[in-house]
Amino acid sequence: METRWNTKGSSARNFKSGLSLWLILWLVVKPGGVAACPKLCVCYPMPMTVSCQSQNLTIVPAGVPYDSQRVFLQNNRITELRADSFGFETQVLWLYGNNITWIEAGAFSNLRVLEELDLGDNPSLRHLEGGAFRGLEKLQSLHMHRCKLATLPHDLFHKLYSLQFLYLQENQLHFLQDDLFSDLVNLTHLFLHGNRIRTLSENVFRGLVNLDRLLLHDNRIRQVNRRAFRDLGRLTILYLFNNSLAELPGQAMKDTQGIQFLRLNGNPWSCGCEARTLWEWFREARISSSELICTSPSQRRGQDLRFLRELDFVLCPLPDPGSLAGSTTTTFSTKTRWWFSKNKPASSSKTLYQKSSETVKAFPFNAVKPQYPPKTPAESFSSKYELSEDEAALPKVDQEEYWTNYGNEDASIRCFELECPPGYDSAFSSSSSLNICLPLLHFLSLSIVTFSLHFLFG
């Protein structure tokens, strides 16, 4: 009996040992008898990971398990990616830090469930085929930073409907084609900083209806179309600092209704009439903004564009609604016409004008505050807002009267385009109708008297 029991126990142990060995072999051997882990690589189960980093590989290794969830091929010397380079299905693929110079169209078409693709830090990758990312309809994150890309094909991101993060910073992009991102309806983060972009056209960001943050700093942007941001209603962060912007149309910013953090510092802002629409937008916006230091004209150099006064734009024409670049026409504003129609003298002590409801914008956590934070109204306005010679020569208006009529000028205008005669007061009061009737009554009375005298004395 004892011998029989030992035999049964031995058989049970042998069965368990055989089962364990079979499980180990199943984990490390691919069905079909092919080794699961490629040469020079290390494999980890749960989730299935193949790590071949820093092995001086020149091609994508063969034998990567088909069901590998993560494949790490970074920091090698891979030079080309062909359509047959990937015979496996994975979710994460890292290829950064290689010497990739060419990616064949359809190179990733077999990676149907790929969610993250990192091609960054490939300094020899200067050009991409139009269909390079064809088939990656589940891709969520695409890294192509520091690759020296000069241009992007118009259909490069075609049908990448799931993409949420796109990293294109620190390349050599000179321009962005219209509708380049039109299929990226779910993109939330777009990083384009550190390139050489010069202009932003009307349709450059069309389709990015869910974009949350857009980084365009450290470029060479000189012009922004006034409709460039028309689809960016959900944008919360916009960085345009360290560019060559002298002007930014206020209409462009009006389209970013959800903006919360804005950085525009490090640009040569021109604070003449071309800045009026942006200044008006800042008056209504409630955002965290960097400073905007004026470089011209000379009398406003060093001032912050956001804190200019209404009087600084009193001679400015209205923006041309038909101009996509925000240029101006020669039609004077209602405020200008009202100003020149006033000739009431004010006391010499009232040479500074302040709007009591002037709003000071908050500064973001990473923005540098101005060197002149306002302390008291008198000190602030006397140091920052000295009248220029042109402003000093304008007719003086009583401060209280000016702000009492502020915003209601249209109801009082009776002559246009500076055609009011000297001494004409265009701000009609409630008794203006009586003033018009008095000469008529006087004329009728004089006619009656003349007729009576003629009747009496023949």
From TrEMBL:
Keywords: Cell membrane, Cell projection, Glycoprotein, Leucine-rich repeat, Lipoprotein, Membrane, Receptor, Repeat, Signal
Domain LRRCT as annotated: residue spans: 267-317
First and last residue of the signal peptide: 1-36
GO cellular component, one term: membrane raft
Membrane topology value: Lipid-anchor
Localization terms from the record: Cell membrane; Cell projection; Membrane raft; Membrane
Pfam families xrefs: LRR_8
Residue ranges annotated for the LRRNT domain, each copy included: 36-70
Stated family: Belongs to the Nogo receptor family.
Protein name: LRRCT domain-containing protein
Native source species: Monopterus albus
